[in-house]
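Notes from hallway chat w/ T.B., transcribed later so I don't forget. T.B. wanted the structure written out for a chain they're using in a teaching module, and asked if we could keep both sequence and structure tokens in one place. Agreed to drop them here.
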Amino acid sequence: MTSNLFSRRRAERFAQLLDEANGGRRHHVRSRADDHLAALVAVGRQLNADPPPVAVDPDFRTGLRAMLVAAAEREGVGVGATAPEAAPAAQRGMLGQRGTPGQRGAVGAAPRGPFLPAVTARRARARGAILLGVTAGAIAVSGISAASENAVPGDALYGMKRSTERAQLALASSDLSRGQLFLDFARTRLGEAAALRGDQLGFAAVLDDMDSDTRQGVRLLTTTAAQRSDPAGLESVNAFVTGQRRAVGDLLDGASRAERDRVRQSIALLDAIRKRSDALRAAIECELPAPAGSDALGPTPAACPGDR
């Protein structure tokens, strides 16, 4: 995941976006990664504007420091400080060879010598910005999220909680990972709904978000299963449906009539998902080709020949 997200181009673009978000010089370019990085940049801006009152765990601080030191050594941050001093000597050596037979390459390189310190400084700054970007992402996902994990709609830290979730999606390395995250978020929305019982509008809105996360997660997982002709990913869907349906059913106890009606919609969605998952598993096991059609829950498989 680290090599995928923090490749040099992606990390440098993240550093540029952070600079721009904090009032720095605008870079008149656009990267295909901008949409995915926007969530991380939003978290960075939010942290800068309203840092939450949370103490960082000492173990996390120690681990983060070790990670940054290792990354600094690997990226050569700090080495650039000595490069400008070494450059003039190298330049003098090349200039001293001017006109020597067979040294045209050295002669041609000599005039570029004075620019080497500036190039080195820019590279060092870029590497430093990359490390800052890595730090911001690590803190957003590992440290700051602890302060907002129990927030519900209406709480001051709820926006931070949702931004952290978007950052986790940006960090995910595959559709399978993103699908699992969406199902985790659906479980989180269920917990929020339990805390909002009695607030009809808030309760319904959170269940809407829960169902949306459920659909997105299921669609990613079922699509991956169909593309790979591998039913293993459907196990996660079925396990989610089993646990989630039981927990959603608990919301019916003591609920108002309007709340019960809304809860039953979510139960119906989970039942439809289980039916789709079973149909996809059967299609994969009887070696049908990947379905051409799809809907909100992912591929729509045909029935096996013996079931028609």
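Follow-up for T.B.: The two ends are 43 Å apart (CA to CA). Might be a good example for the class.
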